[in-house]
């Protein structure tokens, strides 16, 4: 039996023992994943080979980052990959496989490309071993959920240089809502897991979910920590294990020494839903209307972000998120955006109390909508993979999705992996998610008001889909209302679900015309008050022969 080692009072597993199939070491790893969603790992470093090579790579990368911003800007890509720069950090993001770099980024200088090629092959081999170890664990083999998540053939290699222009606060924040408080807000990633192999100073913190406190990650500049890495799980691991494995919540805080830059390197095992939209050549000029709040579900305890006045392009919004919250575009999945329309500005967060109850319905749906979507003003969007984060407010007047995405990236430092809008088989999908605690009649009337607002909103004028201008087009509404009823206390509590599904149709008017009235069935007298409300709105052509009751709904609904 192998002896258990530790770092910062948490288990430190040994990579070499995992490679040899040491059952005790594998159990240590599984226990940490079940408790926290992350684990410290001693990386293979025979004769100091890893340390020496990382020192060489660090020298090359540091020299590149030390160049003038004008010179570095020549290497910036128009997509999510290659060199990028926001106010508090800069970085390089590339896709890799077992053969090294893939050609999705603007090529960098020769010395950097060579360093990246070595890194790509080395870290891919490490993560591939860990992936094989994970998939042999009973929690995966006994609970196969392969149909829920499809992994990408590409891994994502991230290199980030944090400037640390601000000193660390005397007392670390409990959460860290934006880049005024932290380099990167608390969040979990969309992929299977990430392996961090280099951190040149303090900053990375992992959330201990049992004790509700932050644990410092390794500082690889310290001699006794030079080969300690970190594995943190993403949302995909939680889905595949039916939440036996937790999503590893992590953040990056400021250094104790101002202007002490922090260079860090990690690779993520990604999902296809996360990567494919980033390498798509389709236009992503999604517009989010004002009067919209965006809450990032993957940012725990975060506050909503409001879309700017006049609306905002999704890319601009995500740039804002990265600046304000330190979260880059590649670390957010489409279902991590929760758009909240603010019909009452004083009630921006009216659905926050019930977010946890409907998150399970949201998590599995990573589909996209048409990429010209306009988010309505006054709404808020929650980032699901940013635990405890505040929702984003959509700007007054609405904004495009691209502007919104840029704002997210600028303000939270977290990038998004995919756009929210897409045309699927000629059908335009539009989503509106709300959780309302009230009686049934009020709920249904509120939904009807929302639907009328959708018909009168700029969405129809912003899209190029002809079906919206077709007099035969219809708005098909499916309402799914659920309530969880717990009749016991403790782990043995039995949870049951009461569900009501109703479908009705509203004709889409010609541009400028008023919407026709719709009849929504009223609840029967004495019916229970449903509290977890998820309504799905689908704009589709009446001649489309797709049926909501056939096929995989996950491919038809953009979100919930």
Automatic annotation (TrEMBL):
Instruction: Please list the residue ranges that the record marks as compositionally biased, kind Acidic residues.
Output: 346-363
Span of the secretion signal? none
Identify the domain of life: Eukaryota
State a single Pfam family of this protein.
2OG-FeII_Oxy
Q: Domain Isopenicillin N synthase-like Fe(2+) 2OG dioxygenase: where? A: 160-254
Q: Where is the composition biased (Polar residues)?
A: 364-374
Q: Which InterPro entries match?
A: IPNS-like_FE2OG_OXY (IPR044861), IPNS-like_sf (IPR027443), Iron_ascorbate_oxido_reductase (IPR050231)
- In this chain, the stretch annotated as Disordered covers 339-385
Q: Which PANTHER family match?
A: 2-OXOGLUTARATE (2OG) AND FE(II)-DEPENDENT OXYGENASE SUPERFAMILY PROTEIN-RELATED
The name this protein carries in UniProt is Isopenicillin N synthase-like Fe(2+) 2OG dioxygenase domain-containing protein
Query: Which species expresses this protein natively?
Result: Rotaria sordida
Q: What is the lineage of its organism?
A: Eukaryota, Metazoa, Spiralia, Gnathifera, Rotifera
